[in-house]
Structure formats: C-alpha cells, structure tokens
Design goal:
InterPro entries: Glu-Q_tRNA(Asp)_Synthase, Glu/Gln-tRNA-synth, Glu/Gln-tRNA-synth_Ib_cat-dom, GluQ/Sye, Rossmann-like_a/b/a_fold. The protein is of the alpha/beta class and 299 residues long. It contains ten helices and 15 strands.
Length: 299
C-alpha cells in the first residue's frame, strides 16, 4: 500500500515552499489511493517555536489537506529511537565521539557537503557518554539511488561525509536517524520532500540497510526561491492569507508543473483538490533544484 507523509518542523508557520511540498506529497498519495500521514518533526527542541504546531495544523486544514490517522510527534518517540540506537550499538556499528566543533574544524577536510569527519574517535572506545555524540561507522562504497524526479543520486559516504552522528552531544537524536526510524514505524512507502534534503538520501539509505528496513521510493521536488533565496518561515504569514486558499492551490500546482488551464478562482478548495488529484502527474515536476516564484502572485 502507498503510504506517504508530510513532516514539517514546527519552527514557524507554513511558507509557500513547505505548502508546495505538502501539496505534492498529498496529491501523489491520493492519486495512488494511498494514505497521507502528518508527522511533526519536533525532535530538535531548541528549534521548536511555541504555537507553531497549531499554526501548521490550521494552515493545512484551511488548504483542505486532511491527513489520515493521528498526528505523529517525534518528541514522543524518544524511547523507540533509543531502542534502535541500542540495537545498532550491539551490532558494533556505533561509537562515542568527544571531538569538539573546533577540533573537527581543524582536523577535517571539507567535502561537497561540508566537513568530512576523519574518524578520530573510532578506535578510542570512549565509555563515558556524557558530552559525547554517537556516530555510526560507514563503509567505503559507492551508494547509488534513483530519485523519481532528480534521477541518479550517487555518493560514497565514507569519502564525502565520514562516520556521521545519530545522537548529538546534547542528547538529541539526529534528523538522519530519527527519520529512518519514523519511516519504519509508519511503513512509509514513498518520500516526497524538498531538494534541500537530497544530500541526506544516501545516509538514510545506508541506515535503512544496516537496520534491515525497506527503503521507500523517493522524489525530491524543487525548492521555491524568491530573489534567488530559499523561502523562509518569514514568508509564511504573507502567503497564507485568509480566503485565498484556492489561489495558493493554483500557484502551488503551477509551481509543480501541473496544468491549471481549467481552474478558476471561483472554484472551491474542495473542487480544486478533486481536479488536482485526478490530473496529478509527477512526471510534470521538472528535475531542477530550485525554482523562482512570482512574488506578486502570492500577495
Ligand atoms: Zn570524535
């Protein structure tokens, strides 16, 4: 069965870029008669802003984006994440790292995705966990994945990233790791998200493999930019103006390369959604990383 999801971080209200991602994942799930789940990525608690969960839920409701099942919160899954950390530890794949940011800066090469961790602590066998991050050992092999929009994504994690962090020194589970456990717990079959997350795909593929989980099919949609800058949460308030939900839908569909010829602004959101599900074609979403939006169209 097709199970997709939308997973916003509650660091502010929805902005056009996150709405586009929500709409793309919703339409792909619904046009495949699948489920569309909602997960709140609130594991990185310092980044969570008060009130933004309810803003996000209200924003989705107003756009007619009704999720299936109950809302999942990462902050309520810490026990499950720890269970899988313990499992990987028993397999001998994890180690503690007490390198400071400064040490890593000074000892690492910079790769195309940032600093490459050189494995300083791999053989140290550090027992004391306080103040340590937990890293996973990676192997020197090329990983190649086909993304349904972006094509082939290849990476050698060992050469480009190094052993990466599953749990930070402040005890927060990393994005890479928590998402993989979530995919497993929620039986996610299809990932649709923004292009800015594509670099994490090989790491997540690797984690699925070592944890024995099936890897979902992935599609990375272009990032919405304004003035060549990625849209931030700050653009949210301006874009989600009451009573303009159908305009937001049409702008999102246009952004996603879907034809809006037969749509008009007097249609209700429900009508637009029914049309959009029928007409949805993922092939029309073009394989580029970024796409400039017309600012005036969203005021
Ligand atoms: Zn270290």
């Amino acid at each position: 069965m097709y199970i997709g999801r939308f997973a916003p971080t509650p660091s502010g209200p929805l902005h056009f870029g996150s709405i586009v991602t929500a709409i793309a994942s919703f339409l792909d799930a619904k046009s495949n008669k699948g489920k569309w789940l909602l997960k709140i990525d609130d594991i990185d608690e310092p980044r969570v802003r008060d009130g933004s969960v309810s803003e996000i839920l209200k924003g989705l409701e107003r756009l007619g984006l009704a999720w299936d099942d109950h809302v999942v919160y990462q902050s309520q899954r810490k026990e499950q994440y720890q269970f899988h950390i313990n499992d990987l530890k028993e397999k001998g794949l994890l180690y503690n790292c007490n390198c400071s940011r400064k040490m890593i800066n000074n000892s690492s090469l910079t790769g195309s995705h940032g600093l490459i961790y050189n494995g300083t602590c791999r053989e140290k066998n550090l027992k004391n966990q306080t103040g340590c991050s937990i890293r996973i050992k990676v192997v020197d092999e090329d990983i190649s994945i086909i993304d349904s929009i972006q094509g082939e994504i290849s990476q050698n994690i060992h050469n480009d990233i190094g052993d990466f962090i599953l749990k930070r020194s402040d005890d927060i589970f990393s994005y890479q790791f928590s998402v993989v456990v979530d995919n497993h717990l929620d039986n996610i079959s299809h990932i649709i998200r923004g292009y800015d997350l594509i670099n994490s795909l090989p790491r997540q593929f690797y984690l699925h493999k070592v944890m024995g989980f099936d890897f979902p099919k992935s599609s990375h949609i272009p990032i919405a930019t304004l003035g060549r800058k990625k849209l931030s949460k700050g653009h949210g308030d301006r874009i989600l103006i009451q009573n303009y939900e159908n305009l937001i839908w049409m702008n999102a569909l246009t952004f996603l390369g879907q034809s809006t010829q037969n749509y008009h602004l007097s249609m209700t959101v429900e009508d637009i959604i029914q049309h959009a599900i029928k007409g949805w074609s993922k092939n029309k979403v073009k394989g580029f990383a970024e796409r400039e939006i017309d600012e005036h169209a969203h005021r």
